[in-house]
Amino acid sequence: MSTETVAEPVATDATVGVPVPETIRLQATRRFGRVLAPHELWRYRDLAFQIAARDVTVRYRQTALGAAWAILQPVGFMIVFSLFFGRVAGVSSDGLPYALFSLAALVPWTYFANVMLLGSESLVANSSLVAKIYFPRIFMPAGVLAAGLLDLGISLVILFAIVLIYGLVPTVAVLMLPVLVLIMLAAALGVTAGLSALNVRYRDVRYVIPFAIQMWLFATPVAYPSSLIDEPWRTLSAINPMVGVVEGFRWATLGTADAPWALIGVSAASALVVLFAGLIYFDRVERSFADFI
Amino acid sequence: MGEVAIETRGLGKSYMLGLSRRGYGTLRESLVEAAKGSLGRLAGRRGERPDGDTLWALRDLSLTIERGEVVGLIGHNGAGKSTLLKILSRIVEPTEGWADVTGRTGSLLEVGTGFHPELTGRENIFLNGAILGMRRAEIRRRFDEIVEFAEIERFLDTPVKRYSSGMSVRLAFAVAAHLEPEILLVDEVLAVGDAAFQRKSLGKMSEVAEAGRTVVFVSHNLAILQALCQRGVLLERGRAVADAPVAEAIDGYLRTLERAAGGDLLERTDRDTRAYDESLISSVEVRDTEGGLADTVVAGRAAKIAVGVTAVLPMMECRLEIHNSLGHPVATLDSEVSSPVDVRDSELGPLIECEVETLPLLPGRYRIDVLLKGKRQIQDGLQAACFFDVEPGVVADRPTPISGADGDVVLQHTWRLPS
Questions:
Q1: Domain enclosing residue B88, as ranges
Q2: Could you report the predicted ipTM of this complex, rounded to two decimals?
């Protein structure tokens, strides 16, 4: 829906000091809508916060293990991967202890996979809200991302603890971590926004997601190093934004010698493309959510 | 006064039949269509399909509502009332025309939307308040009032899933009632809670209305509309057919109800939207079993209400709601609340009959809303399926008053007076 502001709220009635209420015009939109309208997002900031807070509270209250899940999932995978890929298959780990090598990648991957799974369902799962209340719909998938950050933070702490136990000391590269998280968030928001919107129209999406996540895991160097791939394919594979994120996480947390700048660069560019593609599709269909949900 | 709060010009909303009414499109269907060259649909564009399968829920509506007006929207099911509220509250986008809304809008289309059962009452107040558009500071300021209004002080830190349904409804309404928007859009939400709470809610609503705020209100309860609103807009098949003082608009509505009841019931399109449609209500008739005159019965005599249906289904049930001329419910007869004297008769054919031994209604005009169930599903529903007049008569050897101005029902009674 287009929301042209006819009268700005800055104008005030000189005598009483009452702000002149703004007029919002509701009509069919032909151009881009409001997903990226900062004014609109800012106005509903309290709701965004409440939705994220709700997701966190409910998750920690409903699950018996609560915060432990943030740790159990990546650590569980780490153990399985270490046994099968590290020991049995003898996959190279670029000279690092295999457990550390896989955990550094599993921490961001787990976040990404969980967010993709929950985020793509977020609109459908909140269909009563979408059908009855107006708010910027992007808060639903974005709220899942925000709520997941707590888990990501917890698992990062555990990762650093294990790194220290192994006697490694993180280098200054650790300062790149926020940038890597941002790249991951951009990709995750693009993917979940697009998928959650698609899910409103086509419930098939629900069945595709778990499968897609598994395929994506194998396409990402979590269990194996990307150094197994020959150039130029290695750099090209970073079109998958998680390639740069995962290799970047290894470098930033484990202090490996050479920084994978090429991978990070390609992945960052690709993440931006994914972000905008997802948001543009979301924007195109957002106005019809209530008609279909 | 004189300032415009809501202005609409040529407002319309259409839905595509088939795709939006039942079920969801599958990806395969869309891919096939995309392959046929209509990529537009996948991209969410619309208006490219032929006119044949579009349904106009609202069409060509031009309205001006001034600040401080309390306007009631009146009309049958599917007349476009809820669609208009959804457009004004920005949930759906109009297909054509525009609406200018000036001022902070709060909408209350359903009580308790967004309540989360795992969260406590306290947490839900903040969540629900934010959902309704309240700022955090505002909720904190009014928190005690909300809690007091809902009467849940002791359960503030209990998850809402442990609340009784009455408690959660009270809490939900309390949050909504303390919303202070300049424009309030309300859809049929006063019909919740017990009688005492309903009265309290109604009081709160008139307080809101008197405080000079703009209210657009939808209700099937004409008495509430009449009490709260000054102005009524009557919608029929998506168009505004009357815009007048509320009493006039209600009269207009009652006349359209009668006109609809006069025609062939099977041709009516304002049927219950939840309906399954395997069996439809084809006729409804009230007959005085002694006099035999259709649609006129005498108070105190036996009456029979006969509902004709198009098909006999397993487990058929029928619910008749009798309303007075103001739309106030007077009595509900529900076959699901069964009694040993009820009969299931295989010889009866596609007909449901309900007999009232002594009709205890005062003289006046009444209407019947019918809900038909079968196979445990709602099959059909019609508001104002039939109108009937009650003539003065004798109930338990006592003559009824000539007019129904003193209530709707007659009670069998005995006096004991000093002599």
A1: 4-14+59-254
A2: 0.76
